[in-house]
Amino acid sequence: MAPGNTQGMQQSLRQEQVLLPAMLQSMELLQLPSVELGAFLERAAEENLALFVEPPAPFGASDPDASARRDAWLQNQPDREPGLTEDLEGQLPWLDLSNEVDPWVRHVIASLEASGRLASSDESLLGEARRAGLAGDAGDLGRAIAIVQALEPRGIGGRDVVETLLLQLDPTAADYPLLARLVEEHLDDLARNKRPRIAEALEIDLARLDELVRRLAALELTPGAMHTGGDEPTLVPDIHVEQGDDGFVVRLEEGGLHAVAVDADVETLAREKALDREVKALLRQQVEQARWIVEAVEQRRRTLLRVARATFARQRAFLEHGRDALSALRMTELGEELELHVSTISRAVAGKYVATPHGLVALRWFFQAPGGGSEDLARASVVSAVRTLVEHEDAARPLSDEELVERLAGEGFKLARRTVAKYRKELGIPSSYRRRRYS
Fold first, then answer.
1. Per-residue b/e over 265-303, b at no fewer than 16 CB within 10 Å?
2. What is the pTM of this model?
3. 434 pLDDT above the threshold of 50
Protein backbone atom coordinates (compact mmCIF):
# COMPACT_ATOMS: atom_id res chain seq x y z
CA MET A 1 0.00 0.00 0.00
CA ALA A 2 1.35 3.43 -0.92
CA PRO A 3 2.53 5.62 2.00
CA GLY A 4 0.08 8.36 0.99
CA ASN A 5 -2.88 6.01 1.24
CA THR A 6 -1.79 4.83 4.71
CA GLN A 7 -1.50 8.40 5.94
CA GLY A 8 -4.94 9.26 4.56
CA MET A 9 -6.54 6.25 6.25
CA GLN A 10 -4.92 7.12 9.58
CA GLN A 11 -6.19 10.70 9.33
CA SER A 12 -9.71 9.47 8.49
CA LEU A 13 -9.62 7.05 11.44
CA ARG A 14 -8.57 9.84 13.84
CA GLN A 15 -11.46 12.02 12.57
CA GLU A 16 -13.94 9.15 13.15
CA GLN A 17 -12.56 8.61 16.66
CA VAL A 18 -13.17 12.31 17.43
CA LEU A 19 -16.63 12.45 15.84
CA LEU A 20 -18.02 9.23 17.33
CA PRO A 21 -18.14 10.36 21.00
CA ALA A 22 -19.70 13.67 19.97
CA MET A 23 -22.36 11.89 17.90
CA LEU A 24 -23.15 9.48 20.73
CA GLN A 25 -23.39 12.42 23.14
CA SER A 26 -25.87 14.18 20.85
CA MET A 27 -27.98 11.03 20.50
CA GLU A 28 -28.03 10.48 24.26
CA LEU A 29 -29.03 14.04 25.12
CA LEU A 30 -31.65 14.29 22.37
CA GLN A 31 -33.83 11.62 23.94
CA LEU A 32 -33.74 13.13 27.44
CA PRO A 33 -36.75 15.19 28.64
CA SER A 34 -35.86 18.58 30.12
CA VAL A 35 -35.98 17.43 33.74
CA GLU A 36 -33.66 14.47 33.07
CA LEU A 37 -31.38 16.67 30.98
CA GLY A 38 -30.81 18.96 33.96
CA ALA A 39 -29.90 16.00 36.19
CA PHE A 40 -27.50 14.68 33.53
CA LEU A 41 -25.74 18.05 33.22
CA GLU A 42 -25.33 18.40 36.98
CA ARG A 43 -23.74 14.96 37.20
CA ALA A 44 -21.48 15.71 34.24
CA ALA A 45 -20.33 18.98 35.84
CA GLU A 46 -19.36 17.13 39.02
CA GLU A 47 -17.09 14.86 37.00
CA ASN A 48 -15.68 17.44 34.58
CA LEU A 49 -13.85 20.58 35.75
CA ALA A 50 -14.13 22.14 32.29
CA LEU A 51 -17.93 21.96 32.15
CA PHE A 52 -19.77 24.99 33.56
CA VAL A 53 -23.41 24.27 34.43
CA GLU A 54 -25.71 26.82 36.05
CA PRO A 55 -29.13 25.75 37.37
CA PRO A 56 -32.09 27.72 36.00
CA ALA A 57 -33.01 30.91 37.78
CA PRO A 58 -36.35 31.01 39.62
CA PHE A 59 -39.23 31.77 37.31
CA GLY A 60 -39.73 35.49 36.94
CA ALA A 61 -36.20 36.45 38.07
CA SER A 62 -35.42 37.94 34.67
CA ASP A 63 -38.66 37.50 32.76
CA PRO A 64 -41.98 38.53 34.39
CA ASP A 65 -43.89 36.77 31.59
CA ALA A 66 -42.17 33.49 32.48
CA SER A 67 -43.38 33.84 36.06
CA ALA A 68 -46.94 34.41 34.86
CA ARG A 69 -46.75 31.37 32.60
CA ARG A 70 -45.40 29.26 35.46
CA ASP A 71 -48.16 30.40 37.83
CA ALA A 72 -50.82 29.62 35.24
CA TRP A 73 -49.31 26.20 34.65
CA LEU A 74 -49.24 25.33 38.34
CA GLN A 75 -52.84 26.50 38.80
CA ASN A 76 -53.94 24.11 36.07
CA GLN A 77 -52.24 21.14 37.75
CA PRO A 78 -54.62 18.81 39.60
CA ASP A 79 -54.32 18.58 43.35
CA ARG A 80 -52.18 15.62 44.38
CA GLU A 81 -53.76 13.10 46.75
CA PRO A 82 -51.63 11.32 49.33
CA GLY A 83 -50.21 7.96 48.29
CA LEU A 84 -51.94 4.74 49.32
CA THR A 85 -49.40 3.84 52.03
CA GLU A 86 -49.44 7.37 53.44
CA ASP A 87 -53.24 7.44 53.46
CA LEU A 88 -53.60 4.09 55.25
CA GLU A 89 -50.89 4.72 57.82
CA GLY A 90 -52.51 8.07 58.56
CA GLN A 91 -55.57 6.21 59.85
CA LEU A 92 -53.63 4.05 62.33
CA PRO A 93 -53.26 6.60 65.18
CA TRP A 94 -57.06 6.57 65.57
CA LEU A 95 -57.12 2.79 66.18
CA ASP A 96 -55.00 2.82 69.36
CA LEU A 97 -53.05 -0.27 68.29
CA SER A 98 -50.74 -2.03 70.73
CA ASN A 99 -46.98 -2.02 70.26
CA GLU A 100 -47.17 -5.67 69.24
CA VAL A 101 -49.93 -5.27 66.62
CA ASP A 102 -48.86 -1.96 65.03
CA PRO A 103 -45.74 -3.30 63.22
CA TRP A 104 -47.73 -6.22 61.78
CA VAL A 105 -50.38 -3.86 60.41
CA ARG A 106 -47.70 -1.66 58.84
CA HIS A 107 -46.10 -4.79 57.38
CA VAL A 108 -49.37 -5.73 55.68
CA ILE A 109 -49.86 -2.17 54.38
CA ALA A 110 -46.35 -2.19 52.92
CA SER A 111 -47.16 -5.47 51.14
CA LEU A 112 -50.21 -4.12 49.30
CA GLU A 113 -50.10 -3.68 45.53
CA ALA A 114 -50.83 -0.26 44.05
CA SER A 115 -54.35 -1.52 43.28
CA GLY A 116 -54.95 -2.13 47.01
CA ARG A 117 -54.89 -5.93 46.64
CA LEU A 118 -52.96 -8.21 49.00
CA ALA A 119 -51.62 -10.67 46.46
CA SER A 120 -48.87 -12.25 48.61
CA SER A 121 -49.65 -15.56 50.30
CA ASP A 122 -49.67 -15.89 54.09
CA GLU A 123 -46.51 -18.00 53.88
CA SER A 124 -44.73 -15.28 51.91
CA LEU A 125 -45.92 -12.53 54.29
CA LEU A 126 -44.80 -14.53 57.33
CA GLY A 127 -41.38 -15.18 55.79
CA GLU A 128 -40.88 -11.48 55.04
CA ALA A 129 -42.01 -10.59 58.56
CA ARG A 130 -39.47 -12.94 60.13
CA ARG A 131 -36.70 -11.56 57.93
CA ALA A 132 -37.71 -8.08 59.09
CA GLY A 133 -37.40 -9.21 62.72
CA LEU A 134 -41.11 -9.14 63.65
CA ALA A 135 -42.08 -11.29 66.63
CA GLY A 136 -45.32 -13.24 66.24
CA ASP A 137 -47.07 -15.94 64.24
CA ALA A 138 -49.86 -16.56 61.74
CA GLY A 139 -52.43 -15.37 64.28
CA ASP A 140 -50.78 -11.94 64.44
CA LEU A 141 -50.74 -11.79 60.64
CA GLY A 142 -54.43 -12.71 60.43
CA ARG A 143 -55.38 -10.00 62.93
CA ALA A 144 -53.31 -7.43 61.04
CA ILE A 145 -54.97 -8.34 57.73
CA ALA A 146 -58.41 -7.96 59.32
CA ILE A 147 -57.47 -4.49 60.62
CA VAL A 148 -56.18 -3.37 57.21
CA GLN A 149 -59.32 -4.67 55.49
CA ALA A 150 -61.39 -2.47 57.81
CA LEU A 151 -59.55 0.71 56.74
CA GLU A 152 -60.79 3.19 54.16
CA PRO A 153 -61.31 2.94 51.26
CA ARG A 154 -63.27 -0.27 51.75
CA GLY A 155 -62.02 -3.19 49.71
CA ILE A 156 -58.37 -2.63 50.64
CA GLY A 157 -56.54 -5.87 51.39
CA GLY A 158 -58.75 -8.15 49.31
CA ARG A 159 -56.92 -11.22 47.96
CA ASP A 160 -58.85 -11.31 44.66
CA VAL A 161 -61.76 -9.64 42.86
CA VAL A 162 -64.39 -11.56 44.83
CA GLU A 163 -62.97 -10.66 48.26
CA THR A 164 -62.36 -7.05 47.16
CA LEU A 165 -66.03 -6.67 46.24
CA LEU A 166 -67.33 -8.52 49.31
CA LEU A 167 -65.34 -6.23 51.62
CA GLN A 168 -67.23 -3.26 50.18
CA LEU A 169 -70.69 -4.70 50.84
CA ASP A 170 -72.66 -3.79 53.95
CA PRO A 171 -73.53 -7.05 55.81
CA THR A 172 -76.42 -5.30 57.56
CA ALA A 173 -78.13 -4.31 54.29
CA ALA A 174 -81.32 -6.14 53.34
CA ASP A 175 -80.00 -7.13 49.90
CA TYR A 176 -76.60 -8.30 51.21
CA PRO A 177 -77.38 -12.05 50.76
CA LEU A 178 -78.32 -11.54 47.10
CA LEU A 179 -75.32 -9.31 46.40
CA ALA A 180 -72.96 -11.75 48.10
CA ARG A 181 -74.31 -14.67 46.06
CA LEU A 182 -74.05 -12.60 42.87
CA VAL A 183 -70.37 -11.93 43.62
CA GLU A 184 -69.44 -15.39 44.88
CA GLU A 185 -71.37 -17.54 42.40
CA HIS A 186 -72.23 -15.60 39.27
CA LEU A 187 -69.43 -13.21 38.27
CA ASP A 188 -68.49 -15.38 35.28
CA ASP A 189 -72.07 -15.52 34.03
CA LEU A 190 -72.40 -11.80 34.61
CA ALA A 191 -69.28 -11.17 32.49
CA ARG A 192 -70.89 -13.23 29.73
CA ASN A 193 -74.13 -11.25 30.10
CA LYS A 194 -76.14 -14.39 30.89
CA ARG A 195 -78.61 -12.44 32.97
CA PRO A 196 -81.67 -14.61 32.46
CA ARG A 197 -79.75 -17.60 33.85
CA ILE A 198 -78.57 -15.55 36.87
CA ALA A 199 -82.07 -14.22 37.58
CA GLU A 200 -83.46 -17.75 37.52
CA ALA A 201 -80.73 -19.01 39.90
CA LEU A 202 -81.34 -16.15 42.34
CA GLU A 203 -85.15 -16.47 41.94
CA ILE A 204 -85.60 -12.80 41.06
CA ASP A 205 -86.80 -10.96 37.94
CA LEU A 206 -84.56 -9.14 35.48
CA ALA A 207 -85.47 -5.71 36.81
CA ARG A 208 -84.36 -6.72 40.31
CA LEU A 209 -81.15 -8.20 38.89
CA ASP A 210 -80.39 -4.97 37.02
CA GLU A 211 -80.79 -3.11 40.29
CA LEU A 212 -78.27 -5.42 41.99
CA VAL A 213 -75.82 -5.13 39.09
CA ARG A 214 -75.99 -1.34 39.34
CA ARG A 215 -75.10 -1.67 43.01
CA LEU A 216 -72.05 -3.78 42.11
CA ALA A 217 -71.03 -1.37 39.35
CA ALA A 218 -70.66 1.34 41.98
CA LEU A 219 -67.96 -0.69 43.77
CA GLU A 220 -64.24 -0.45 43.07
CA LEU A 221 -62.29 -3.34 41.57
CA THR A 222 -59.03 -1.59 42.48
CA PRO A 223 -59.82 0.54 45.55
CA GLY A 224 -56.19 1.59 45.98
CA ALA A 225 -55.94 3.15 42.52
CA MET A 226 -57.70 6.34 43.60
CA HIS A 227 -55.08 6.91 46.32
CA THR A 228 -51.86 6.74 44.27
CA GLY A 229 -51.73 10.41 43.30
CA GLY A 230 -49.00 11.22 45.79
CA ASP A 231 -46.68 8.76 44.05
CA GLU A 232 -47.02 10.34 40.61
CA PRO A 233 -44.59 13.06 39.50
CA THR A 234 -45.91 16.29 38.05
CA LEU A 235 -45.41 16.30 34.30
CA VAL A 236 -43.51 19.29 32.95
CA PRO A 237 -43.92 20.37 29.30
CA ASP A 238 -40.82 20.47 27.10
CA ILE A 239 -42.70 22.34 24.36
CA HIS A 240 -45.48 24.92 24.27
CA VAL A 241 -47.91 25.49 21.40
CA GLU A 242 -49.89 28.70 21.84
CA GLN A 243 -52.28 30.79 19.79
CA GLY A 244 -50.50 33.89 18.48
CA ASP A 245 -51.58 36.88 16.44
CA ASP A 246 -50.67 35.18 13.18
CA GLY A 247 -51.46 31.57 14.03
CA PHE A 248 -50.00 29.02 16.40
CA VAL A 249 -46.54 29.54 17.87
CA VAL A 250 -44.29 26.60 18.82
CA ARG A 251 -41.56 27.25 21.36
CA LEU A 252 -39.38 25.26 23.72
CA GLU A 253 -39.70 25.55 27.50
CA GLU A 254 -36.38 27.32 28.05
CA GLY A 255 -37.14 28.80 31.47
CA GLY A 256 -36.33 25.63 33.37
CA LEU A 257 -33.20 24.65 31.44
CA HIS A 258 -29.65 24.74 32.82
CA ALA A 259 -27.12 27.09 31.25
CA VAL A 260 -24.11 25.14 29.99
CA ALA A 261 -20.70 26.28 28.68
CA VAL A 262 -17.00 25.43 28.62
CA ASP A 263 -15.27 26.95 31.65
CA ALA A 264 -12.97 29.64 30.21
CA ASP A 265 -10.49 29.43 33.12
CA VAL A 266 -10.01 25.68 32.71
CA GLU A 267 -9.71 26.10 28.95
CA THR A 268 -6.94 28.67 29.46
CA LEU A 269 -5.19 26.49 32.04
CA ALA A 270 -5.17 23.53 29.63
CA ARG A 271 -3.01 25.60 27.25
CA GLU A 272 -0.48 26.58 29.93
CA LYS A 273 2.98 25.43 28.77
CA ALA A 274 4.45 25.15 32.27
CA LEU A 275 1.73 22.73 33.41
CA ASP A 276 2.62 19.10 34.11
CA ARG A 277 2.20 17.02 30.95
CA GLU A 278 -0.23 14.48 32.46
CA VAL A 279 -2.35 17.17 34.10
CA LYS A 280 -2.43 19.11 30.85
CA ALA A 281 -3.53 16.01 28.93
CA LEU A 282 -6.31 15.36 31.44
CA LEU A 283 -7.55 18.97 31.27
CA ARG A 284 -7.49 18.96 27.47
CA GLN A 285 -9.54 15.78 27.46
CA GLN A 286 -12.09 17.33 29.82
CA VAL A 287 -12.25 20.51 27.73
CA GLU A 288 -12.93 18.40 24.64
CA GLN A 289 -15.63 16.44 26.43
CA ALA A 290 -17.19 19.66 27.73
CA ARG A 291 -17.32 20.99 24.15
CA TRP A 292 -19.09 17.82 23.04
CA ILE A 293 -21.73 18.28 25.74
CA VAL A 294 -22.25 21.97 24.97
CA GLU A 295 -22.67 21.22 21.28
CA ALA A 296 -24.95 18.28 22.03
CA VAL A 297 -27.22 20.48 24.18
CA GLU A 298 -27.47 23.06 21.40
CA GLN A 299 -28.03 20.34 18.80
CA ARG A 300 -30.81 18.92 20.98
CA ARG A 301 -32.48 22.32 21.16
CA ARG A 302 -32.32 22.85 17.39
CA THR A 303 -33.53 19.35 16.52
CA LEU A 304 -36.37 19.31 19.04
CA LEU A 305 -37.63 22.69 17.85
CA ARG A 306 -37.46 21.62 14.17
CA VAL A 307 -39.33 18.40 14.88
CA ALA A 308 -41.98 20.16 17.00
CA ARG A 309 -42.61 22.89 14.43
CA ALA A 310 -42.90 20.38 11.59
CA THR A 311 -45.19 18.17 13.68
CA PHE A 312 -47.69 20.91 14.47
CA ALA A 313 -47.59 22.25 10.94
CA ARG A 314 -49.09 18.84 10.08
CA GLN A 315 -51.39 18.79 13.13
CA ARG A 316 -53.09 22.15 12.70
CA ALA A 317 -56.53 20.47 12.68
CA PHE A 318 -55.81 19.11 16.16
CA LEU A 319 -54.82 22.57 17.41
CA GLU A 320 -58.01 24.11 16.00
CA HIS A 321 -60.56 21.39 16.76
CA GLY A 322 -59.19 19.00 19.37
CA ARG A 323 -58.18 15.36 19.70
CA ASP A 324 -60.79 13.88 17.40
CA ALA A 325 -59.31 15.90 14.52
CA LEU A 326 -55.83 14.36 14.84
CA SER A 327 -54.20 13.78 11.46
CA ALA A 328 -52.32 10.63 10.54
CA LEU A 329 -48.56 11.17 10.67
CA ARG A 330 -45.66 8.74 10.42
CA MET A 331 -42.16 9.42 11.73
CA THR A 332 -40.74 8.35 8.38
CA GLU A 333 -42.73 11.11 6.64
CA LEU A 334 -41.42 13.78 8.97
CA GLY A 335 -37.90 12.37 8.71
CA GLU A 336 -38.00 12.68 4.91
CA GLU A 337 -39.32 16.23 5.16
CA LEU A 338 -36.60 17.32 7.61
CA GLU A 339 -33.89 15.07 6.11
CA LEU A 340 -33.45 13.32 9.46
CA HIS A 341 -33.22 9.59 10.13
CA VAL A 342 -36.36 8.08 11.66
CA SER A 343 -34.33 7.09 14.74
CA THR A 344 -33.53 10.78 15.28
CA ILE A 345 -37.24 11.64 15.15
CA SER A 346 -37.96 8.83 17.60
CA ARG A 347 -35.32 10.09 20.06
CA ALA A 348 -36.56 13.67 19.73
CA VAL A 349 -40.13 12.79 20.71
CA ALA A 350 -39.28 10.19 23.38
CA GLY A 351 -40.50 11.24 26.83
CA LYS A 352 -41.34 14.80 25.72
CA TYR A 353 -44.64 16.52 26.59
CA VAL A 354 -46.37 19.41 24.87
CA ALA A 355 -48.60 22.01 26.48
CA THR A 356 -51.32 22.55 23.85
CA PRO A 357 -54.63 24.43 23.79
CA HIS A 358 -56.21 21.03 24.49
CA GLY A 359 -54.09 20.02 27.45
CA LEU A 360 -50.76 18.37 28.13
CA VAL A 361 -50.05 15.66 25.54
CA ALA A 362 -47.12 13.33 24.91
CA LEU A 363 -45.32 14.41 21.74
CA ARG A 364 -45.15 10.79 20.55
CA TRP A 365 -48.97 10.65 20.52
CA PHE A 366 -49.07 12.90 17.45
CA PHE A 367 -47.43 10.18 15.37
CA GLN A 368 -50.13 7.71 14.46
CA ALA A 369 -50.74 5.57 11.40
CA PRO A 370 -53.95 5.98 9.37
CA GLY A 371 -56.92 4.33 11.01
CA GLY A 372 -58.87 3.55 7.88
CA GLY A 373 -60.50 5.20 4.89
CA SER A 374 -58.33 8.19 4.07
CA GLU A 375 -54.60 8.49 4.67
CA ASP A 376 -55.40 11.73 6.48
CA LEU A 377 -57.40 10.03 9.23
CA ALA A 378 -55.39 9.24 12.34
CA ARG A 379 -55.96 6.01 14.21
CA ALA A 380 -57.03 7.94 17.33
CA SER A 381 -59.83 9.65 15.37
CA VAL A 382 -61.17 6.31 14.14
CA VAL A 383 -61.02 4.79 17.64
CA SER A 384 -62.88 7.81 18.98
CA ALA A 385 -65.59 7.32 16.34
CA VAL A 386 -66.03 3.69 17.43
CA ARG A 387 -66.37 4.76 21.06
CA THR A 388 -68.95 7.43 20.20
CA LEU A 389 -71.13 5.01 18.21
CA VAL A 390 -71.19 2.49 21.06
CA GLU A 391 -71.94 5.16 23.65
CA HIS A 392 -75.05 6.25 21.70
CA GLU A 393 -76.35 2.81 20.65
CA ASP A 394 -79.63 1.26 21.79
CA ALA A 395 -78.66 -0.81 24.85
CA ALA A 396 -81.43 -3.31 24.08
CA ARG A 397 -80.10 -3.78 20.52
CA PRO A 398 -76.35 -3.03 20.61
CA LEU A 399 -74.47 -2.67 17.35
CA SER A 400 -72.63 -5.71 16.04
CA ASP A 401 -69.17 -5.29 14.52
CA GLU A 402 -70.72 -5.54 11.04
CA GLU A 403 -73.18 -2.77 11.90
CA LEU A 404 -70.34 -0.64 13.29
CA VAL A 405 -68.53 -1.07 9.96
CA GLU A 406 -71.60 0.22 8.12
CA ARG A 407 -72.09 3.19 10.46
CA LEU A 408 -68.40 4.12 10.25
CA ALA A 409 -68.49 3.93 6.45
CA GLY A 410 -71.28 6.49 6.53
CA GLU A 411 -68.94 8.80 8.42
CA GLY A 412 -66.09 8.32 5.96
CA PHE A 413 -64.21 5.55 7.80
CA LYS A 414 -63.78 2.52 5.55
CA LEU A 415 -62.69 -0.33 7.79
CA ALA A 416 -62.68 -4.11 7.75
CA ARG A 417 -64.74 -5.89 10.39
CA ARG A 418 -61.64 -7.37 12.05
CA THR A 419 -60.17 -3.86 12.35
CA VAL A 420 -63.30 -2.57 14.07
CA ALA A 421 -63.23 -5.60 16.39
CA LYS A 422 -59.61 -4.84 17.27
CA TYR A 423 -60.35 -1.19 18.08
CA ARG A 424 -63.40 -2.21 20.12
CA LYS A 425 -61.31 -4.59 22.22
CA GLU A 426 -58.62 -1.95 22.74
CA LEU A 427 -61.31 0.32 24.18
CA GLY A 428 -62.38 -2.43 26.56
CA ILE A 429 -65.81 -2.66 24.89
CA PRO A 430 -67.29 -6.17 25.01
CA SER A 431 -69.08 -7.81 22.09
CA SER A 432 -72.63 -6.80 21.21
CA TYR A 433 -73.94 -9.97 22.88
CA ARG A 434 -72.34 -8.98 26.20
CA ARG A 435 -73.44 -5.35 25.85
CA ARG A 436 -77.10 -6.22 25.48
CA ARG A 437 -79.37 -4.92 28.23
CA TYR A 438 -82.42 -7.04 28.97
CA SER A 439 -85.74 -5.44 29.80
1. ebbebbeeeeeeeeebeebbebbebbbbbbebbebbeeb
2. 0.53
3. yes
